[in-house]
Amino acid sequence: MSFVRIAVSGVLRTWDGAERTGVNAAYVRALLCAGGIPLILSPLMGASLAASALDGCDGLLLTGGEDIEPSWYGAEPSPFLSPPSQDRDLFELALFAVARQRDLPILGICRGIQLINVALGGTLYQDLPSDRPDSVDHSPAGARDARSHPIRLQPGSRVAAALDATEITVNSVHHQAVENLAPGLIATGWTGDGLIEAAESESGASWILAVQWHPEEMYADSRAPEHGLFSALVTEAGLAGRSSVGRGRKEDTIAHAVERTP
Ligand code: MN
After folding, report:
1. How far is the CA of 197 from the centre of ligand 1 (A)?
2. Nearest-CA neighbor of 62 among 102, 97, 103?
3. Residue 216 among the catalytic residues
4. What pLDDT is attached to residue 134?
5. Of 7, 98, 124, 167, whose Cβ has the fewest other Cβ atoms within 10 Å?
6. Which residues are placed with Cβ below 5 angstroms of ligand 1, an ion?
7. Is residue 57 flagged as an active site residue?
8. Which are the contacts of 209, defined by CB distance < 8 A and separation ≥ 6?
9. Which residues constitute the domain of residue 82?
10. How far apart are CA 29 and CA 37, in angstroms?
């Protein structure tokens, strides 16, 4: 039996007086529930090691965290911007670029959807309460796994298929969000007033699925539809591994055919 290895982008934080690097355990637990092998990649590696770090990985999970430096999308920092991490931006932009080059499937969560959108040329709301006041509280007080606002999903989309739903009430722990969606992405999930909460790549392009909420926090509920998002990534990563073998064989066949051509 072969296992599917999923690279998980990590964070660097100081707590209890010590510098630590890793991820929220919920990401690791959710991937384990889906049958994947989570490999945590520390941003301390830096962008220059991103390609080597992804060797042997079958998929990429871009996780939540810091606000993205607004200069990446041509904006001045809002007074409400939370401190960005240039090292993490650079590392994850490099991971994303390498993963796309290798046609690895990519799941983006919270900051992950924002990073993917910025990497592909989109822009962000830097602070929803000041940039886009509306009736939805995207950062309510309470537990991280508390479902707080409804979204609707595009029927037939990857996200709707993965969740087996076209409406779902999600947890919400964010103050930034996609503003202008990048070329190459399709919006597939929205709040009632049209804020983008899910996006994906076009069919035929490298597989990307990204959500603004935190599906990993639902890992403990075995019946939560969110498990479907991690299963979709692991399944796609397994297929990608097999199809790259298939591609190799096809190239061999073409090479032999060329040799035989008079
Ligand atoms: Mn939200």
Report:
1. 7
2. 97
3. yes
4. 81
5. 167
6. 138, 172
7. no
8. 105, 106, 107, 108, 158, 159, 162, 198, 200, 201, 229, 232, 233
9. 4-258
10. 10
**pLDDT digit string, tens, across residues 7-61:** 999 999 999 999 999 999 999 999 999 999 999 999 999 999 999 999 999 999 9
Q: How far is the CA of 147 from the centre of ligand 1 (A)?
A: 10
User: How many Å lie between the centroid of ligand 1 and the Cα of residue 172?
Assistant: 4
Given the residues 69, 216, 217, 226, the one annotated as active site: 216
Q: How far apart are CA 53 and CA 12, in angstroms?
A: 17
Distance 241 CA to ligand 1 centre (A): 33
Instruction: Give the distance (Å) from ligand 1 centre to CA of residue 32.
Output: 25
The amino acid sitting at 257 is A
Question: Is the pLDDT reported for residue 258 higher than 90?
Answer: no
At 236-254, the pLDDT tens digits run 999 976 544 433 333 333 3
Packing angle, helices 227-260 and 25-33, rounded to 10: 60
Using one digit for the tens of pLDDT, what is the confidence trace for 149-158? 999 999 999 9
Q: Do β-strands 59-62 and 106-109 pair in parallel, antiparallel, or remain unpaired?
A: parallel
In this structure, are residues 128 and 138 in contact, taking their beta carbons and an 8 Å threshold?
Answer: yes
Q: How many domains does the chain have?
A: 1
